[in-house]
Amino acid sequence: MAAVVICWAILAGCRRVGGLGGGPLPVQRPWAARQHATCCEPSRDNASSPYSRDDDLFLWGRRTAPVEEVAAALGRGTRGVAARLRRLEDPLSEGHRRLFFQDRFGTPTAGSGGGKPEPGSPAALRPAREVVDRVLWDPALDAADFRVGYRDRFKLALSEAPFTEPNTSVQGPERLLVYALPEHRIEYIKYRKRLVWRKETRLDLVFGSGVHCGDPLKIQQVVSSYAEWAAARSARAREARAGALAHLGSDELLSSFFELLGRVRNGELSRADFVDEALSPELFGAGADAGGGEALIGVLRELPDEFSELREALLELVAERVRSLRLLSAGTSQAVPS
Fold this sequence. Notes:
Layout: H1 2-17, H2 31-36, H3 53-61, H4 67-74, H5 78-89, H6 94-101, H7 128-137, E1 146-150, E2 159-162, H8 177-180, E3 186-191, E4 194-198, E5 203-204, H9 219-224, H10 226-248, H11 251-265, H12 271-278, H13 292-300, H14 308-335
Antiparallel strand pairs: 1-2, 1-3, 3-4, 4-5
Helix pairs in contact: 4-5, 5-6, 10-13, 11-12, 13-14
């Protein structure tokens, strides 16, 4: 036990001072390394032997250090070490899969494609922490493109922050907020404006677990097709905004409506009160049974996916209210003598 403690102390010291060469190291080890690393330093007599998983963990954790020093520590040639690192950076390579998607015994981790859920049972959702580690450690991804949505104990609405935001609010040694957050408080993760992981709906477009188990759409495809997705989303939003503006008749009223929508999104206004105000005569209530209701529904449909539960609830309330207005209008018309 004492030897294990000493090993971890040495690893922690290397991480703090920047590794073998004194150069900067990433903030965190990958999830696999954090969970399963058991050695302090590989054997120095490895020149002709295959890379073990512990070798790969050691190499990956020091990938920013001078290659000569890492090669010396591994007991291998510099060209071989550089070539191995390139393989670890390739998401399609066996080394990459072993490092990130298997435990130390070679067993595929949940959602890695190595197993299928039992028939009739829901597919397991990859935990938020594994998604965070994937984003921060996958060389094909830029952490600056990702945002995390989380529950703040002092706010009604969800908070959102970039992956690169420093930790200034959660006690502990973690330097990044996304690592300092308790996992149970993380609700969703976005790539730019597209939701790629959400706990509530079991959405996972990073690993393809949860409701997307077996779906070929993974984070690489999300990134490569993002421009097309964003263009389609913008086109729908412009069309919905134009319909709302045509009904309201002025930018001032449209701004008032979006302010109202922001309040219900932030939890400052109840859903019922929002519907009352949105369907008031000053906004969409004037002619709600003849176009105003459809214009309001069109805007609500474009609420971002992280607000899907709110979006569906508002759509249901508005549709019910519009139906009532139509019935009332029809009854009034029939009661008027010809």
